[in-house]
Amino acid sequence: MADVQEEHKMLDVLILAAGLGTRMRSDLAKVLHRLDGRPLINHVSRTAAALAPQKIYVVIGHQGEDVRSAVLEEFDSNDAVFVEQKRQLGTGDAVNAARDLLANQDSTLLVLSGDVPMIRPETLAGLVQHHHGHRGRGAACTILTVKLMDPTGYGRIVRNPEGLFEKIVEQKDANETERQIHEINAGIYAFDSTKLFDALAKVQNDNAQGEYYLTDVPSLLREAGEDVAIFQHGDAYEVEGVNNRAQLADLERLLNSRTVKRQMLDYGVSFIDPKNVYISEGAKIGRDTVIHPNVTIEGESEIGDGCTIHSGTRITNSRIGHGVEIRDNCLIQDSEIGNSCTVGPMAHLRGHAVMRSNAKVGNFVELKKTTLGSGSKASHLTYLGDATVGENTNIGAGTVTCNYDGKNKHETKIGDNVRIGSDTMLVAPVEVGDGAVTAAGSVVIENVEADSLVAGVPAKVKKKLSESKSV
Ligand code: UD1
Ligand code: CA
Question: The whole model's pTM is what?
Answer without folding.
Answer: 0.90
